[in-house]
């Protein structure tokens, strides 16, 4: 049942608004506050689906109330109530996050349409947040070992900033997972996360993939095409396996980082982009620099923050948690009952040499679930997880 708060210092206007809403729907719960201070206190202590707020009030005006609420409960839609002389301020409040404004005396149809639309918007915002939390679970970092806790601490500190991050570590350790978590916990999480596997794109196509191209730039360029940097505008671009990028492409990326500008292949016009760059590699970039395969200036641009993801062999204490995580996830994906592992089976898996890291462990767990018994035993591990 939608709960609406009216913050208005004129009792007559409060009564009119309350009556209109009561006649519109008997499902609305309408509460009133006679000034901004009282209204803000009520919002702090209760959950509202919509706030109708006057602009000019004693003690605390509507703009101040709006700004305060957006810091603590940003999902609540605000509809500002403006007098004839407040229209310019009402428009300003929309830049501050207000959903809309209505003028005094309130027009019946406009008020009701605005209220319905604002409540619909609140439902969408809440649903999007719910889905976002659900999506985030796909990128959950599982583990309580010292190396993983250290990475989690770095992410908590770095994610809210725009600092560039270089993630290193062997194949299969979860470098992409770290990149996703940096994005999910950042101020850019509502925008795109765009992934580019630099090793999978031929060197002659990497510039077009990253920066786009104009029609006629090369034989197959039959129309203008935006690149990954433009697609990631206001969001995050993840350059995976950046150690495999060609030197000409590295030069273009360096310029994009230095000037926040890109240029499509075949064009002479600069395009401004606002992108956070996260890169990853399994190579020793300092060695690549010494051998002339990677630009040192690009390395220093990317490696503002360094995150080293450990091999699974260096975090064996996390294997029981990872086993439980993967068995639960696989059971959900396959619609089956989650199988349990005996203590001896878990202990044996902890002793294995995991050259393929997390990726290999996940594959082995799935194999054991498919081929093993109702409970995964030590014997199952010896039979189906052997190297």
TrEMBL record:
<dbReference type="InterPro" id="IPR027417">
    <property type="entry name" value="P-loop_NTPase"/>
</dbReference>
<dbReference type="GO" id="GO:0006355">
    <property type="term" value="P:regulation of DNA-templated transcription"/>
</dbReference>
<dbReference type="InterPro" id="IPR011006">
    <property type="entry name" value="CheY-like_superfamily"/>
</dbReference>
<dbReference type="GO" id="GO:0000160">
    <property type="term" value="P:phosphorelay signal transduction system"/>
</dbReference>
<keyword id="KW-0597">Phosphoprotein</keyword>
<dbReference type="InterPro" id="IPR001789">
    <property type="entry name" value="Sig_transdc_resp-reg_receiver"/>
</dbReference>
<dbReference type="Pfam" id="PF00158">
    <property type="entry name" value="Sigma54_activat"/>
</dbReference>
<keyword id="KW-0067">ATP-binding</keyword>
<keyword id="KW-0547">Nucleotide-binding</keyword>
<dbReference type="GO" id="GO:0005524">
    <property type="term" value="F:ATP binding"/>
</dbReference>
<dbReference type="InterPro" id="IPR025943">
    <property type="entry name" value="Sigma_54_int_dom_ATP-bd_2"/>
</dbReference>
<feature type="domain" description="Sigma-54 factor interaction">
    <location>
        <begin position="141"/>
        <end position="370"/>
    </location>
</feature>
<dbReference type="Pfam" id="PF25601">
    <property type="entry name" value="AAA_lid_14"/>
</dbReference>
<dbReference type="Pfam" id="PF00072">
    <property type="entry name" value="Response_reg"/>
</dbReference>
<feature type="modified residue" description="4-aspartylphosphate">
    <location>
        <position position="54"/>
    </location>
</feature>
<feature type="domain" description="Response regulatory">
    <location>
        <begin position="3"/>
        <end position="119"/>
    </location>
</feature>
<protein>
    <submittedName>
        <fullName>Sigma-54-dependent Fis family transcriptional regulator</fullName>
    </submittedName>
</protein>
<dbReference type="InterPro" id="IPR003593">
    <property type="entry name" value="AAA+_ATPase"/>
</dbReference>
<dbReference type="InterPro" id="IPR058031">
    <property type="entry name" value="AAA_lid_NorR"/>
</dbReference>
<dbReference type="InterPro" id="IPR002078">
    <property type="entry name" value="Sigma_54_int"/>
</dbReference>
